[in-house]
Each structure stands twice: as C-alpha cells, then as structure tokens.
Amino acid sequence: MKMPGDVRVAAPFLDAEAVAAVLAERQRAVAPVEAADRRARVRVLTWTLGDEAYATPLADLYEVAVIPRVTAVPGAPPALVGLISWRGAVLNLFDPATGLRIAPPEEPGRAMLVLRHAAPRIALQVSAITAVAAVVDPGSAGTESLTRFVEADDDQRLAVVDTALLIQRLLARPLQEG
User: Residue 135 and residue 44: Cα distance in Å, rounded?
Assistant: First the structure.
C-alpha cells in the first residue's frame, strides 16, 4: 500500500542500506533551520573530583581560583577542609565528595570554585577545572536530586550538580561567616 509522501527510489547500483544513508544525508542537508534543537541551554563549568567528572552552572559561580593557604579548623565537620582568606573575606573551603557521597580523592584539590552564596561564604575544593560547556538545561524534574545527567553539545554526558542542594548537605551545622 502506497502512502502519501512515500518516495520510491530506484538505484539498481545501490543496496537498500546505501539508499537509506543517501536519503538521510539529503534530509539533514535540506532540513530547515527551525528543525534544530530548540531546548534551553545552560553554560556550565566542568570539573573533576579525583576520577569523577561533574559540572556546575556558571550562574552559581562567583570565581574559579587556585586554592590559597588553608587554615584547619579543630573539630570541624569532615566536609570542611578549612578556612581560607580570599579577597579580604573568610571562606569555608569544602570537599564536595562528602556532599556527593563519594570517596574523597587521594590527592588534595588544587582549584576552588567560589560559589554565589551569601552567608556563609563557600568554596569547593576540586581536583581540576576541565572546560566550559553548553548543556541542555537540566531544570527541575520535581524531585530533589543532587546531580542530573545531561548531554553537552559535543554529545558528552555530564553530571550537573544542584549547587543549592549540595550546600544544604555540606552545611550540617553553622560555620564561620566572613
């Protein structure tokens, strides 16, 4: 039965698979611009924690920097690496592994993500900063999830961290404000 819009291709020198490939390529070539992916995008900073890769929306970050000298805090929760002086303020430097509920990396982090969080001021110790990427906006799926897997424009899958939820997990009790 022939349906409207069906196209019959006669190409005796090509097999069915080759014909399908040619038609698919032609369809991609002539597809209108409107057919492009219109899902909302968010720019994220990708970073590692040991061998694990994560991403944080750029809107949640104040700055990225090398970790300065850290002052340990006796009796601090395990997630708190210590306090740092940064641009005239005291920041709480956290190891996000505790909040992410993964094993802490063997090597201490070398970079920090200064978060946009008013009080207390917070920075996350990470192993390395890897890139900036555009990803499909993970939005809110109605459930609290610390990470949401999304695809970047280069087809890489990334775990985008919900910064607000991570902060809640890390702030088990009041900390230094500065």
Answer: 7
Distance of alpha carbon 163 from alpha carbon 96, whole angstroms: 10
Dump pLDDT digits (tens) for 39-82: 678 889 999 988 888 999 999 999 999 999 999 999 888 889 99
Which residues does residue 53 pair with via DSSP β-bridges, in sequence order?
48
Which residue, among 37, 103, 94, has the nearest Cα to 70 in the 3D structure? 94
Q: Are 141 and 36 in contact (CB under 8 A)?
A: no
**Cα gap 79→82, rounded to integer Å:** 9
Tokens 């280069």 belong to residue? 154
**pTM confidence score:** 0.71
**Tokens standing for residue 120:** 């207390």
User: Which of 58, 49, 33 has its CA nearest to residue 137?
Assistant: 58
Amino acid at 104: P
